[in-house]
Amino acid sequence: MVKILMRADTHVSFSVPIEEPVAKCTFSQVLAALSVSLGSMVVGFSSAYTSPALVSMKDRNITSFEVTDQSGSWVGGIMPLAGLAGGILGGPMIEYLGRKNTILATATPFIISWLLIGCATHVAMVLVGRALSGLCVGIASLSLPVYLGETVQPEVRGTLGLLPTAFGNIGILLCFVAGKYLDWSGLAFLGAALPIPFLLLMFLIPETPRWYVSRNREDRARKALQWLRGRKADVEPELKGISKSHQDAERHASSSAMLDLLNKANLKPLLISLGLMFFQQLSGINAVIFYTVQIFQSAGSTIDEKLCTIIVGVVNFIATFIATVLIDRLGRKILLYISDVAMIITLMTLGTFFYMKNNGDDVSEIGWLPLAAFVVFVVGFSLGFGPIPWLMMGEILPGKIRGSAASVATAFNWSCTFVVTKTFADITASIGNHGAFWMFGSICIVGLLFVIVYVPETQGKSLEDIERKMMGRVRRMSSVANIKPLSFNM
């Protein structure tokens, strides 16, 4: 028997369901997620372009101008550098122009950048096009997760929030497949066509309600929230929660954006986001992808080099969709655990294989091992550490500093990308390829401890609840935004 004491004027709701109610995900939210995800597909295509394109670009029978090894390396390397600049620029843009307008502003420059490359008569035109494309990639990689984090319901934010990563992998796969049949110029013209549906769909979706509230435009915020949640939805409780969270942030804000970032309460979520970005890139993903062909060759494979990249794209694509299905069922931390453990095991395995091979041991009987380890590594990365740092960046950063903090996190990510890509050859030269894999595996072990100790679980929580918990604010009983029925399990 359960005895409950309560005041006579207290209203208590009882519910004894075995399962949690399933959130109703409106078509409007799916359309919003799909629209911004098409932008991510353009980002994925841009990131993958040099892998299939450089081969034909260096062929003087196809290209009218000379592309040396040095200039060819800059065709690939200039994009993460420009992405770093885009990450820095994107923070102020999403605060002043809005999340939607910032994303929309990348579409036309994307088209121009691809036309510059496709019509290039000199390597300088290619470099300018790649730099402009990289600038847009940096801005988009920052603004897409922020937009989705602020518009999608908590119950489906993980699933819909991973759509940009899934579509980004579609862009990579499309580039790899098309690169088997098109030269660098044809591939660039295909890239110029991709932003057009993205540009058209972005006009159909609203700005985020939280940005409208930050600009004291509550009526516009209400209309945007009503569009996202459906005509019959009661959006007032959620709107009050957003407004209250914004007022709390305003009360705790200083006059300087930089001081806000260094504020103790804000510093914690920022450092967590930076940590996730650090361990994402220092897992060695770009170095391992760079080593794809050598790994296949070491396995004794006779598969065509371009077909190898297509296999990588397919594995990456499938794994991300698996993560999309699992993330709102298992949560962020569980997928990060699975991802990290898979990467640790495979990196240590790859290191051991190459150590034995470099020491002259007969590894012919386990020639299949590098290929298997590589596939598991890509699956593990795509399940967790690939998409989740970007998703959580849009979730855990407080609303008041979301733009500037996301800018810092994105710029830091691109800096790590550039450093790992540019130093990999030097690392392998000094400690061997086996030492490089062991080093990345050791960093992943530290990353696992970081996730266990510092990373919060955000599954099913509203952005306001996450912000209160991260910043240590006491939840007041007067807040009606997050009151739920009491549940008693008999």
UniProtKB/TrEMBL annotation:
CDD domains: MFS_GLUT6_8_Class3_like
Pfam families associated with the record: Sugar_tr (PF00083)
Subcellular location(s) of the protein: Cell membrane
Superkingdom per UniProt: Eukaryota
UniProt cross-references to InterPro entries, sorted A to Z: MFS_dom (IPR020846), MFS_ERD6/Tret1-like (IPR044775), MFS_sugar_transport-like (IPR005828), MFS_trans_sf (IPR036259), MFS_Trehalose_Transporter (IPR050549), Sugar/inositol_transpt (IPR003663), Sugar_transporter_CS (IPR005829)
Domain Major facilitator superfamily (MFS) profile per the UniProt entry, residue ranges: 32-459
GO cellular component: plasma membrane
Keywords linked to the UniProt accession: Cell membrane, Glycoprotein, Membrane, Sugar transport, Transmembrane, Transmembrane helix, Transport
Bilayer disposition of the protein: Multi-pass membrane protein
A molecular-function term among this protein's GO annotations: trehalose transmembrane transporter activity
Bilayer-crossing regions: 30-51, 71-91, 103-125, 131-148, 160-179, 185-205, 270-290, 310-327, 334-356, 368-392, 404-424, 436-455
Homology family: Belongs to the major facilitator superfamily. Sugar transporter (TC 2.A.1.1) family. Trehalose transporter subfamily.
PANTHER family hit by this protein: FACILITATED TREHALOSE TRANSPORTER TRET1-1-RELATED, PTHR48021
Function: High-capacity facilitative transporter for trehalose. Does not transport maltose, sucrose or lactose. Mediates the bidirectional transfer of trehalose. Responsible for the transport of trehalose synthesized in the fat body and the incorporation of trehalose into other tissues that require a carbon source, thereby regulating trehalose levels in the hemolymph.
Protein name: Facilitated trehalose transporter Tret1
Species whose genome carries this gene: Anopheles melas
